[in-house]
Amino acid sequence: MQTRPKHIAMIMDGNGRWAKKRLLPRAVGHVRGSSNVRSIVQVCVEHGVEYLTLFAFSTENWRRPEDEVSTLMDLFIQYLDKEVGEMKAAGIRFRMIGERSAFSASLQERIASAERETSQNTKLHLTVAANYGGQWDILKATQLWAQENPNTSLSLLEPQELKNYLSTRELPDPDLLIRTGGESRLSNFLLWQMAYTELYFTDTYWPEFDRAELEIALDWFSKRVRRFGQTDEQVLEEN
Ligand code: IPE
Ligand code: IPE
Ligand code: MG
Fold first, then answer.
1. Which of 116, 191, 193, 205 has the smallest C-beta neighbourhood within 10 Å, fewest atoms?
2. What is the atom index within ligand 2 of the atom nearest the CA of 187?
3. Distance 1 CA to ligand 2 centre (A)
C-alpha cells in the first residue's frame, strides 16, 4: 500500500488574504508566500517526496492589476536569483511549465539557466507552473500531436499517447494535491494529470502553511485508499 506521495502538486493560494487580515498590502503577502516556498521544498526533501509541482501564476492571473502582476514577476526573478545555487547543491532539479514566451527576456533567461544548471539533479524534481493553465496544456498537447502525426486520424489518439505531449510529459501524475487558502477548486491547474489525484484543501493561507500543516496533509494522504476504478477487494488482493 502506498503511504507516501511520490508527486505532490500545490496550489499556493491565500497570499492576498493573509496580508489583508494584517492590514498589509497584497504585495507583502506575495513576498511572504515566496519565501515560504523554500521551507516547503526542504520539508518535501526530508519526507522523500520525489516530485513537487507548484502553481505560481495561472493563465488567468494576468487579469490582476498591473502592479500586482509585476510584483509577482519580480518575485519569480528574485526567487531564481536566490535559490538556483542552493537547488544545484541540494540535488534539486528545476523545471518550469507554462507559456514562457509571455515573460520578459530576463525572466526567460533565468528560467532557462535554472533548468540547465540543475538538469543533472535527481533528488527532488521541482516544477513551477507559471502562465500555466490546464486547458492550455491539453489544447497545446493535442495540437503538437497533430503536427507530429499529420497523416494519422485524430480519432486514433489515445489518452496514454496524449500524455507524452503534455508539458508534464517527464513527470508522473500527482498523487496528492494540496490547495491552501480555503477554496475547493482547481482553478485550471493540472486538469488532465489530476484525474486520480487525492485532493486536500485547507483553510490555512499559503504564507502560514508550514511543516506541521504539510505533515497533517501527508498523514491524511497515508489513510486514503486509491482504487483507480477497482473495488476494495481487488485493491487488497493486489497489495
Ligand atoms: C496566491 O495568492 C498567489 C497567486 C495567485 C499568484 P492570491 O494572491 O490568490 O491570494 P488571495 O487568494 O487573494 O488571498
Ligand atoms: C490559483 O489561485 C492560482 C495560483 C495559486 C497561482 P487564484 O487565486 O488565481 O484562484 P481563483 O481565482 O481564486 O480561482
Ligand atoms: Mg487566490
1. 116
2. 14
3. 33
Q: Using an 8 Å Cβ cutoff, are 189 and 11 in contact?
A: yes
Q: Per the structure, how many domains does the chain have?
A: 1
Return the ligand number nearest the Cα of 27: 1
Dihedral sign computed on CA atoms, order 31, 186, 5, 145: negative
Which residues are within 5 Å of ligand 3 (an ion), measured at CB?
A: 13
The ligand minimizing its distance to the Cα of 209 is 1
Q: How far is the CA of 114 from the centre of ligand 1 (A)?
A: 25
Which ligand 1 atom is the nearest neighbour of the CA of 14? 14
Atom 8, ligand 2: residue with shortest CA distance: 13
For residue 2, tell me if it sits in a domain: no
Instruction: Give how far the C-alpha of residue 209 lies from the chain's centroid of Cα atoms, to the nearest Å.
Output: 15
Per-residue pLDDT of the chain (239 residues; tens, 9 = 90+): 458 999 999 999 999 999 999 999 999 999 999 999 999 999 999 999 999 999 999 999 999 999 999 999 999 999 999 999 999 999 999 999 999 999 999 999 999 999 999 999 999 999 999 999 999 999 999 999 999 999 999 999 999 999 999 999 999 999 999 999 999 999 999 999 999 999 999 999 999 999 999 999 999 999 999 999 999 999 999 88
DSSP 180-219: -SS--S-TTSSTTTTTT-EEEE-SS-GGG--HHHHHHHHH
Instruction: Give the global pTM.
Output: 0.97
Residue 1 falls within a domain, yes or no? no
Atom of ligand 2 nearest to the CA of 16: 8
Q: Which domain holds residue 60?
A: 7-238
Cα(57) to centroid(ligand 2), Å: 8
Domain holding 169: CATH number? 3.40.1180.10
